[in-house]
Amino acid sequence: MKENYGTDIPFVKIPDMHNKVFIDETMQSLSLLGANSQKSKYLPPNSIMVSCIGTPGLVSLTGTTVQTNQQINSLILKPKYLYCTFLELKSLKDKIGNLGSGGTTIKNLNKSDFSNLEITVPDRESILDKFNNIARPIFDQIHTNN
């Protein structure tokens, strides 16, 4: 419906994710009416988005509050896990793409397979703190430069 689209809430689709770390603007946005018709699909800033259909394995962060289409799976994490998980998922691009190759012409990684994807993140607070002390300013600068 035409009234569901507007300029209020960025609506992330896979083309918006290509070569982007942070997504603040998108090619299409939703009106508040459209976004509020699917309130459970709001993603806060600093959520991780992973494309899973068509071009599986693209990984971006939300720079602002957004919603996504059904081709994108998202993670809302505690801040201490954000950057290490983002980088780990980026490093798994090929694996995610291969998992999504179910014999069809369009690659599709379903939610169940995505949920079963194993990633490695530090389990010690001291390591996470040291990593985040280095990573956070770098990601903040990337977002500012965006």
Instruction: Give the count of helical stretches.
Output: 6
Strand order of the largest sheet: 1-4-2-7
- Helix-and-strand structural type: alpha/beta
Seen as an oligomer or otherwise, the chain set is single chain
Question: Major sheet, described briefly?
Answer: 4 strands, mixed
Catalogue the unreliable spans.
none
Helix content: 25-40%
Computed Rg: 16 Å
Number of strands: 8
Net shape: globular
> What is the beta-strand fraction?
15-25%
The average pLDDT score comes to 91
* Measured distance between first and last alpha carbons: 32 Å
Element string (H = helix, E = strand): EEHEEHEEEEHHHH
Explain what the structure shows.
This protein has helices at residues 14-17, 32-36, 79-91, 93-99, 111-115, 125-145; strands at 5-6, 9-12, 22-23, 29-30, 48-51, 59-62, 67-68, 72-75. It has 146 residues and is of the alpha/beta class. Strand 5 and strand 6 (59-62) form a beta hairpin. The radius of gyration is 16 Å and the shape is globular.
What layout of secondary structure does this protein have?
Elements: E1 5-6, E2 9-12, H1 14-17, E3 22-23, E4 29-30, H2 32-36, E5 48-51, E6 59-62, E7 67-68, E8 72-75, H3 79-91, H4 93-99, H5 111-115, H6 125-145
Parallel strand pairs: 2-7, 3-6
Antiparallel strand pairs: 1-4, 2-4, 5-6, 5-8
Summarize the model shown.
The protein has 146 residues and is α/β, with parallel strands linked by helices. Helices cover 38% and strands 16% of the residues. The model has no long low-confidence stretch (mean pLDDT 91).
Keywords:
146 residues; alpha/beta; 4-stranded mixed sheet; 6 helices; 8 strands
